[in-house]
């Protein structure tokens, strides 16, 4: 007998979708209509993949898979081939969610699992195929896809810095006049989305603040110790997908810490690991892998916090 409803009603997930709509529209303006068609194709396969698993248990598809699909697609460059994007979302839904038992049981953020899979498996389209950014009306609304960049001097801010040591202007980083993945360009829209999610109590402000503080403190500390490869903290925070991941990925209620103190520890660790990966590893980014790494320790963090609280109560009662 089929489930009465195809989708599981999830108000919090709908709020996340609302916060992402301006960013989706901005991605079309910056890079062309392929940004939208990529979203549609990936969304279709995400829903189909989850449906194939849930129909056996007579359960509806979660609206969370829509959020997973949107977030995953926004981490991709617009030139990503459709088949690569589809493989990534299928992998993310299956191995980042369904193998753990479905919605609410996953250890890792499914969108990041899919992104990490295609990043490692298909490095050329994910790290070397970037497109110009439209900066005047009607922008990408008048074309399928903006021209491909064929020189490093016009690549993403993180790539440019690693190659030449040059920094993009703060204004360009804030308003999106730089190349990059679909969702990471306009930091203003990301910040506004974060404010909306905090105001509606949809996402944890403690996690957002602790990730930023962990990133800034770690960056300044490493610079003070003489590590010249560490990017200026303010530029680092506004470059790449750091803010996008902080607002939408780190705050995933399933794979993030649940205790109040644990959220601060969890966020600070993400900020610290992001700086370490960016500065000393081969990857220009880092926050994606930082979140997945810290996701591994999230249950332990919460358990240690609970044990500490229990010991304090026992001491007070003694």
Question: Which key terms come to mind for this protein?
Answer:
single chain; 318 residues; mainly alpha; 2 domains; two-stranded parallel sheet; 14 helices; 62% helix
Per-chain topology:
Elements: E1 7-8, H1 11-31, H2 34-54, E2 61-62, H3 64-74, H4 82-96, H5 110-121, H6 123-127, H7 157-164, H8 170-175, H9 187-199, H10 205-224, H11 233-238, H12 242-249, H13 260-280, H14 287-317
Parallel strand pairs: 1-2
Protein name: Na+-transporting NADH:ubiquinone oxidoreductase subunit B
GO molecular function: oxidoreductase activity
EC number: 1.6.5.-
Q: How would you describe what is shown here?
A:
With 318 residues, the chain is an all-alpha fold. The chain has two domains: 1-201, no CATH class; 203-318, no CATH class. It has 14 helices and two strands. Strands 1-2 form a two-stranded parallel sheet. Helix 1 (11-31) packs parallel to helix 3, helix 10 crosses helix 13 and helix 13 (260-280) runs antiparallel to helix 14 (287-317). The mean pLDDT is 86. InterPro entries: NqrB/RnfD (IPR004338), RnfD_bac (IPR011303). Keywords: Flavoprotein, FMN, Membrane, Oxidoreductase, Phosphoprotein, Translocase, Transmembrane, Transmembrane helix, Transport. Its EC number is 1.6.5.-. It is an enzyme of class 1 (oxidoreductase).
